[in-house]
């Protein structure tokens, strides 16, 4: 068993290595969101280890058992005797275990220095070089480096698998929030406004729109608990380094002051609350007519008479007081949950705004376009063992045919697939070849974007890809239509009984005046 001083020294060394590992990871310039998120989770794990070792050092410094003090006195009084005694213990341990491998602690922390993106690029380059050598007919038999172990980084397969199962498809690894479940609970709350998911994302923090009477219901409490719990879990998954306890404590202090002053949004105290309160029956009324009817009722008059005579039941008064305190506690808990959710939303304002934009954009996409978008944003580099030896050589990046092979170059030139056309209306989408470009004008994506611009997707706009050109053409068409309508009054001719010929406008003007 190590001595107390050795345990403290080892804990201090571990803390220094953990801090250096955090610095090494923070200095890495990462571009992929996946690796950045794994890095934050790793740093959060290392910080927990630092706190654990720091707590161990403090416990050993307190020396509640007194062993550290005894050990220090022994070393001070018998320096050389203690030194050679411990040296003998080390030698005897090595003689008993001569084959035990020594693992330097530096090896465990080397993986935090390597950049996973650079290692990934090196592996791709090595695979491309080996494939080129394998296909070369004149290549010599050079031993490949397949058997060499891959350099380890802080990103492991377990981390990537856990990351894939940690987020839903809508969250996109923490880029957006997924409040579909909370939206369903919101729709089940009595008195809630029927909102679409897109409108709900813009208004779900406007709790002041709910009447206070409904905020004490079980459905509303379950809805707030679900919303608050989701944000707590989202911070832990997508923002592990965010100081959530500090934010919660600050929000709690602000809420306590606002609640005492009666200025919490949606729970403001008013004079009507005291005017419509029956102190004898311990009841609060929302309408003045109901309050006046209660004051004139026999039940209230009897309770007032008993209160004046001093014969009121103390048990009943205690029960009414407990019921009032319980209701006030429910209201305070609901108000605190609303205030905390507003604080969370302020922190996540950018992600919620991006979520609304993403939901609005994805509503205009087809199912195939959504799948294609997922494949493009999160490419998976997987190797198929069966086709590993039959990789297709395609240096010109030609499109694939029906047989899974690149189409002939002459066919590529015949269809003009080397010419790329862009459409500004479709978000600067690129189309390869004139045929695909002409075809997309009749597709739903182009038609939807034209409707958003307030322009019908008619044959007149076929071939117009710029937004400015489409708007100017639409203005010119509308102007020409107005001119045609105005000119119809002068094109038509009318003849009176005397044979005089007038245009339509002049004829009806003279006829209304009774001149013809």
UniProtKB/TrEMBL annotation:
Record EC number: 6.5.1.1
Keywords from the UniProt entry: Ligase
Domain of life: Eukaryota
Protein name as catalogued: Pre-mRNA-splicing factor sap61
Species the sequence originates in: Kickxella alabastrina
């Amino acid at each position: 068993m190590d001595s107390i001083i050795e345990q403290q020294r080892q804990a201090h060394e571990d803390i220094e290595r953990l801090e250096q590992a955090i610095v090494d990871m923070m200095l890495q310039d990462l571009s992929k969101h996946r690796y950045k998120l794994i890095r934050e989770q790793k740093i959060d794990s290392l910080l927990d280890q630092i706190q654990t070792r720091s707590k161990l050092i403090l416990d050993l410094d307190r020396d509640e058992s007194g062993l550290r003090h005894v050990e220090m006195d022994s070393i001070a009084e018998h320096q050389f005797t203690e030194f050679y005694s411990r040296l003998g213990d080390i030698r005897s341990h090595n003689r008993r275990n001569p084959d035990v491998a020594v693992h330097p602690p530096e090896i465990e922390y080397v993986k935090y220095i390597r950049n996973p993106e650079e290692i990934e690029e090196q592996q791709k380059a090595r695979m491309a070089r080996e494939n080129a050598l394998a296909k070369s007919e004149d290549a010599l038999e050079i031993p490949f480096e397949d058997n060499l172990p891959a350099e380890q980084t802080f990103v492991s397969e377990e981390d990537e698998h856990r990351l894939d199962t940690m987020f839903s498809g809508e969250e996109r690894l923490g880029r957006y929030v997924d409040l579909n479940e909370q939206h369903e609970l919101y729709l089940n709350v009595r008195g809630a406004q029927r909102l679409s998911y897109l409108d709900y994302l813009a208004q779900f923090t406007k709790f002041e729109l709910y009447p206070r009477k409904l905020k004490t219901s079980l459905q509303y409490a379950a809805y707030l608990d679900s919303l608050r719990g989701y944000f707590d879990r989202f911070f832990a998954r997508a923002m592990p380094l965010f100081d959530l306890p500090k934010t919660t404590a600050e929000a709690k202090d602000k809420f306590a002051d606002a609640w005492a002053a009666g200025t919490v949004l949606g729970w403001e105290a008013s004079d009507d609350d005291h005017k419509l309160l029956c102190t004898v029956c311990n009841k609060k009324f929302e309408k003045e007519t109901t309050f006046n009817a209660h004051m004139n009722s026999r039940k209230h008059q009897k309770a007032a008479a008993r209160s004046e005579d001093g014969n009121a039941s103390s048990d009943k008064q205690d029960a009414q007081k407990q019921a009032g305190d319980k209701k006030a506690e429910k209201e305070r808990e609901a108000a605190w949950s609303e205030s905390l959710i507003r604080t969370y939303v302020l922190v996540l304002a950018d992600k919620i705004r991006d979520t609304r934009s993403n939901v609005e954009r994805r509503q205009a996409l087809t199912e195939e376009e959504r799948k294609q978008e997922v494949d493009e944003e999160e490419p998976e580099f997987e190797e198929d063992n069966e086709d590993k030896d039959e990789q297709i050589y395609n240096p010109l990046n030609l499109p694939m045919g029906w047989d899974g092979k690149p189409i002939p170059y002459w066919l590529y030139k015949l269809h003009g697939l080397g010419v790329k056309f862009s459409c500004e209306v479709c978000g600067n989408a690129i189309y390869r070849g004139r045929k695909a470009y002409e075809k997309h004008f009749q597709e739903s994506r182009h038609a939807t974007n034209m409707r958003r611009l307030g322009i019908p997707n008619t044959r007149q706009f076929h071939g117009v890809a710029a937004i400015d050109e489409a708007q100017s053409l639409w203005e010119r068409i509308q102007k020409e239509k107005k001119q045609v309508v105005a000119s119809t009054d002068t094109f038509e001719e009318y003849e009176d009984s005397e044979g005089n010929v007038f245009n339509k406008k002049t004829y009806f003007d003279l006829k209304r005046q009774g001149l013809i």
